[in-house]
User: Fold these one by one.
Assistant:
Number 1:
Amino acid sequence: MGIYVNPGNGAFEMARFSEIYVDKSMLISQMNRVYRTEKRFICVSRPRRFGKSMAANMLSAYYSCGCDSAALFSGLEIEKEPSFEKHLNRHTVIRLDIQKFLFRESHLDIFIDRMQEAVIRELRAVYETDLEPEQYGLPAVLEQIYAHTGEGFVFIIDEWDCVFRLAKEQKDVQKAYLDFLRGLFKGQEYVELAYMTGILPIKKYGEHSAINIFKEFSMLNPGRLAGYFGFTEEEVKKLCEKYGVDYGETQKWYDGYLLGGMHIYNPQAVTELTDSGRFQSYWTGTETYEALKIYIDLNFDGLKEAIIRMLSDMRCKIDPSTCQNDMTTFGNKDDVLTLLLHLGYLSFDETTGEVFIPNQEIAREFLRSVRAGGWEGLVRALNRSEELLRKTWEMDGEAVAEEMALIHDETASMLKYNSEHSLTCTVLMAYYSARIYYMNPLMELPSGKGFADVVYLPRRNVDKPALVVELKWNKSAEGAIAQIKDKQYGAWLEDYTGEILLVGIGYTKRKKHTCVIEKYVKKQV
């Protein structure tokens, strides 16, 4: 048993017998499907704390002939698979955690050589022969072993991308590393399986990947591996039931990552929740708001408007194709938003091509970042939100209109002021504090003869009125209320037993903001 060659199974053993362990062993069957095929090169990218290292440790424990892992997989789903026994502890594994060679920035110029030396040293011990690296390093040694023994290797590489996170500006270091990986894998028959994980997808130059032999499973394209990283909805429901945690509240705080049509939760947050019983943001242990602030403060046209829209529970369509998959090369706002997606600050809807803030935990990190400076107008608008909501409940249309005007002014520099779209963003930001009392706003809810712009439904056990909001740009609030009645928007809520308020908001260049609030009168049966 070695450190890098044929490692043991201790890391997986600790995870397997932890208090909270969710069975992701069927990932092994996916790897067995591509073993020694043209599709044997796999790269999985997910944010921190999504279970990437645990999966890598599991695969290492399964394939490595340096340990006996039968007991660790006893009772897991993979045990039922026909391919399970065929590959269990029968392969020479080379397991590398790139971060262990790069815990200091001073290692950047030497880490590739040191990594090769460490692996070659262990290979010499395993094969009891004098292996000559020549000028080609580790690939030459592996070719010699394969030529003499016919034995190939399973490569498991964790934190593959940490070079691009540590050496953000050092293109020569990045290129040398990619050249090393290309030489290690491309066209090499000794590769039985190559499995890499990281936060970022494989670095691109222009429109092309530097290592194009790898099939990528990312936050953009999770494919058939979607359910193996992070906790699924059903897995979280079972944990909530086991630990007596309110699933509805858990959903509000931590749901929202859409991968392959599945709702995925960050395992770190759910595990911390079941341990502490407290609903709060656990993200600060993963990334800091200062890191987020660097990116959302970049001066790209439309970026701040996109952030405001998403803070207002709206979505933004992006083109991720130009993102170079590093942390410094940005040409437009879409490149920035794509990076934030890979870092876990945003979620992506494959069906619409839109990104959005996934849940309350991440929304709080955005708010911490904007409050840190540079977004004073937005901060002032958020601070007015509670008062505006209270005036709405009191049906004080004049006061709501005044607050709405102030909030619109505060955000005008970041939004196109005179448009219905801008007014929608303003209203959603104005009612930001509503998320304490209400579920996520329903946008353009089909109802009666048309669509209500925004509908707020109270959370369970919250004694507040439902709000049906109609927005009109360049028209009056009275016109908005008339449309609510004419289109019968309130009909959708006939079965709602609580009070319903109809809120008409208008904005015109001449009369500025107006607001009319009325109680909805249900039809008598």
Number 2:
Amino acid sequence: MATNDLHALNQRYVRLTDRCRSQWTFYQLLQGLFKHLFDQPCPIELDFPSLFNELRELAASIGLPEASRTEKAIQQLAAKLDSHGRKLREVDESISPSSLRRFFDRLRTQDEKVLLAIVKFYLDGDTSSPDILDKLDILFTRLAEIPRPEGGVLPREIHEIERIVQPLLAVRPPGSPDDAELGILLGAVADLRAEVTACRSFTELAAGGALDRFRTLKRRLGESLLNPRLLPTVMQTTVAIKARFHALWEEEQARLADDSDRVRDLERQLQTHPEMMDEQLRQALALYASAQERFDRGLQEDSVRREDALELRQSLNRILDRFETATASDSHPPGELDASSHLVEVAGEQLDEVSEPGITSLAADPLIHEHLSKIVFALELVGGDRPVGEAVRAKELATLRLEPSEVAALRALQDQRTATGTLANERDRLLAQAAALRIRMEEEAGEIERLQKLGSEHLADLLERVTQSLQRAAELDRRFGWFVEDALYRGDTALLEPLYRCRFRLVNAYSALWLIHNERGGVSPF
């Protein structure tokens, strides 16, 4: 037999062996999946041991004079593998990508060779199906992960991912995208990664839209996702986003548990004082109960949906806000409900009482009084004995994303540490106003997007109200400029960084709101 013919037979034998191993591994995956997730046996039985025996016999016959006999054996084995592959793929159609993800989530260890064999099985067939691409995405993500001893994962370096991916994709045609489109896609992926990793809370991440945009991008790419120049970056970004998601989710779970305990305490107090219950609070409690039930069911099934977690967070916030309103009513017995008993009415039009006269005039401002009251309430819960750097990270304040200098200014106003009319007092008032207005503008930007998606008729009213926030933000920005110039003139450089940080954060919220307001048809206030 000619050397070239022998080499070709050897190559075909290697491919058959590789296909058989990947199918055998996938068959074992299906058996484990049906057993552990569905509590039933795999619906097909395939005789892989006999296939391996035939492969061993074929290996012994390669190089012998009867070349036609060897060729026939190769064709017969290839036909059997084609048949096995079709049967395996028929069963695989009943397995959703989410089930595959759940199965791998339950595995404590992951063998790279097993993952590679399963990936090869999928790549050996039609990869145009969205479900197949989703499953490949799950598997490639696992290959790009480095488990951390303390829990969680880190993304591999890009060159390590390329080492894994490129041999798998070498047999596939390069296809699209072209170089120009590839550059645009890589830039879009990098932007989404930066947006996600910059999120400081789970609520910000879940409601921000970056996760959905990244998923949509991968879906729209289709089989172009398997481009060897694009896939490694997508894999690394997926792991980085996944790691950020899980880190924020762990923090949010603790906050959800704490706030749920608070709501249960409030419900017990409302049973003692039913006169504090109003219709809005009753509806908020009903929505919370429904959201909590769905969330708990997801925890039990190990399949909590992001939407359910976000709905639970919103329902908890709604109840706590409404409870503040209830505790401000005249019918509430004094001293009965902890720090909430002397808070202002959050949802009302007028400030009836503020326990700290130093911020009374600010809190009376109808534009920011609701959000300033939320800050005051959170500060009450944190207490005044914790350093500002620690206080801003406390669970009661973390969702407000305050600057340490803003917390220090609010405390100074509460304690009346600076005399009215002094430069220090005016600076503290500016920082407090900017913090409350920034929170208001960030909420208004999110509400505009929500009403736009719903096609709500209330959008026009909201756009009109937003104009007031934009006007006030421009005014505060001018005041920040004056304080910065004054600090430079006096040589008080220690004040510059906190002033710049608070000013830039205000301007960032102001710019984002202005762009959304303008895009949705709002009339510019300038």
